[in-house]
Amino acid sequence: MESTTINSVTAPAIGTVVTRWTRDPGTLLTAATALTAGLSTTNLWWSIPTAVTAFLAGRRPGRTAPTVLALVAILAASVTALSVVPTWLPLAGRFVTVVVAATMLPWFAGRFWCQYRQLVRAAAPAARASGSGEVR
Fold it and tell me: What pTM does this model have?
């Protein structure tokens, strides 16, 4: 693995970090969710792939920061666009509906499912050790 030394600190080369970042399925799902949420302002059929990718992004274990940053970026871009072009106000209602109903709710459902599975996995050894009940 290549490394770069800056101020006596060795860090991985930038290309390695970028390649690893773009190969992460969670990052790709978050980017796909943001893209399809943006496209849903043109046609509501884009809300279906938005909901699917948001659910799959939420279902993945790990950090939630990329998704939160994507939602903040979408919100900032939409507020900026509305301040520049006020005639897009009718599209803003549709966009807010898609962001809440097709992005946030499926993402939270995926997070709930992921946390539920992690809790079941964590409880399984304790249930087996105590001999009580059955664990799925």
Answer: 0.69
